[in-house]
Amino acid sequence: MKTKVILSFFLFIIFQSSHSQENTPTDYMSSDFHKSRREALRASMPPNSVAVFFANPIRNRSNDVDFIYHQDPNFYYLSGLKEPHSVLVIYSEDQVEDGKTFNEALYVYERGARYKIYNGPGVGVKGAIEDLGFTNVYPGKAFIEDPIDFSKFEKVMFRKFENDVRQKGWEQPNLYALIEQFKTSINSIPMPEGKELDSDKESAQSVVDNKTLRTLMANLREVKTDEELKLIKKAVEISCVGQIEVMKAMHPGMSETETQGIHEMVFKKYGSEYEGYPSIVGAGNNSCVLHYIDNNKLEAGNDLILMDLGAEYRGYTADVTRTIPASGKFTVEQKLIYDLVYEAQEAGMAAMVIGNDARKVDAAAREVVYKGLLELGITDSLAQGRLYFPHGTSHHIGLDVHDLNNRGAFKENMILTVEPGIYIPDGSPCDEKWWKIGVRIEDDVLITKNGPVNYSALAPRKSEEIEKMMEQESVFNHFHLPDLDSEEGK
Ligand code: GLY
Ligand code: MN
Ligand code: MN
């Protein structure tokens, strides 16, 4: 027995020493895509400049447990690498050093033997070359031991550092060490006369620039390629199936937690790796809290339950909200509010055309909501409508749920949400028959030459269609588990 355990342990180590994993998904963005994005960025960079990207930090959850790692979307977009402690350097022109010509360099964490025992082999230099398609790859320590001379460039571009990047632990060099080296390097660039040195503030040195890169990256990321849209569509459709399955399974005795679990089980069933943001599942008064994530009410009762969840699929996230009556039937007041939000969403969707912008979509939806609230006697003036619709209507989605963009006019292949809402919490200054009603309807809509295309049309949106879907039989009606609180149940 003991020999077997030891043997399988060694086999495990041997197996782990190979970087590419067998039997894992193959539909991630291709290395050609990431390469093309680096080329597009390079083409938009000022002459004689360099852009430096750092991987996201690991964030600590408690004691020696970290939150699940998630790569910085810019870093992922340009590299495909999902691991921490890495730096990507992109040069606007070819560099020649020691007879070698290159226009980019990737520095990756090369895992040590002990780290591999716990965490597996990781990508490393070999994987970055073979799987990610880079040619100029170094272990992270090269970034420190053989520092880049940034003083020879006219612009050194990077994104502002967050203040909470403080890492310890056994990985060396970790992100903190890489960033310290970078700061040391750029701080040694000679200062123009009479200027103070501060790499974290607005570019004190004309060479050091932590602003432009945001715009350049937004220019790229706000318009999706066909390859990206395929993954986004999948993420959105998975999220819609989650909504449909919950519509069928929902009953007044269901808790917010279980409702969330059904959505997320559907996500996993389709191979989605994460949720794109913490799932929002709120019944009754909780539906009026915009980003409610406690999700711990034990029974939805006869209230509305607002469900804002997005599967993340191969890095790309959906953002879909449906609001349904837990009983299966809208009350008169619930339906009046729901249908008003639906009309507002229709108006917003109609404005999702090339040349418009998110403000126009918001204005179109807002006008319907404000007028409707006044007509229902919930408000005394149009302006008071803001009290019940306190958020914007539209944002880009992509690698981030609120995706990077330059807030400009809509272009073909941009994808944004349309998500009006009305929220009337307990104690609002209106008849109490409206209280505890919170409704948001959120769809993910592609801008095309032929008008808007709703990627989330699969999930019923009209009040009548929702009620009809809720009449359907659910597989979860047959999903019986033992009652762990009673002896007989076990
Ligand atoms: N799920 C967050 C949002 O709708 O913006
Ligand atoms: Mn949204
Ligand atoms: Mn949402």
Main β-sheet, in a few words? Answer: 6 strands, mixed
Number of domains: 2
**Which range best describes the helical content: under 10%, 10-25%, 25-40%, 40-55%, 55-70% or over 70%?**
25-40%
Give me the CATH architecture of the largest domain, please.
Alpha-Beta Complex
Q: What is the level 1 CATH name of the largest domain?
A: Alpha Beta
Report strand %: 15-25%
Bound ligands, each once: glycine, manganese (II) ion
Low-confidence stretches: 1-19
Outline, from the CA principal axes?
Answer: globular
Biggest sheet strand line-up: 6-5-4-1-7-8
Q: How large is the count of helical segments? A: 13
Layout of strands and helices, then pairs:
Layout: H1 2-16, H2 31-44, E1 49-54, E2 60-62, E3 65-66, H3 73-79, E4 87-97, E5 100-108, H4 113-119, H5 124-130, E6 137-139, H6 140-145, E7 155-158, H7 175-187, E8 208-209, H8 212-221, H9 226-249, H10 256-269, E9 274-275, E10 280-283, E11 304-309, E12 311-313, E13 316-317, E14 320-325, H11 332-350, H12 358-375, E15 415-418, E16 421-424, E17 437-440, E18 443-446, E19 453-454, H13 463-470
Parallel strand pairs: 1-7, 5-6, 7-8
Antiparallel strand pairs: 1-4, 2-3, 4-5, 9-12, 10-11, 11-14, 12-13, 15-18, 16-17, 18-19
Helix pairs in contact: 2-3, 9-10, 9-13, 11-12
Structure description:
The protein is of the alpha+beta class. The longest helix has 24 residues, at 226-249. It folds into two domains: 18-221, Creatinase/prolidase N-terminal domain (Creatine Amidinohydrolase, Chain A, domain 1); 226-478, Creatinase/methionine aminopeptidase superfamily (Creatine Amidinohydrolase, Alpha-Beta Complex). The protein has a six-stranded mixed sheet, sandwiched between helices. It has 13 helices and 19 strands. Strand 4 (87-97) and strand 5 form a beta hairpin. Bound molecules: glycine and manganese (II) ion (MN) (2 copies). One manganese (II) ion binds at residues 308, 319, 321, 442.
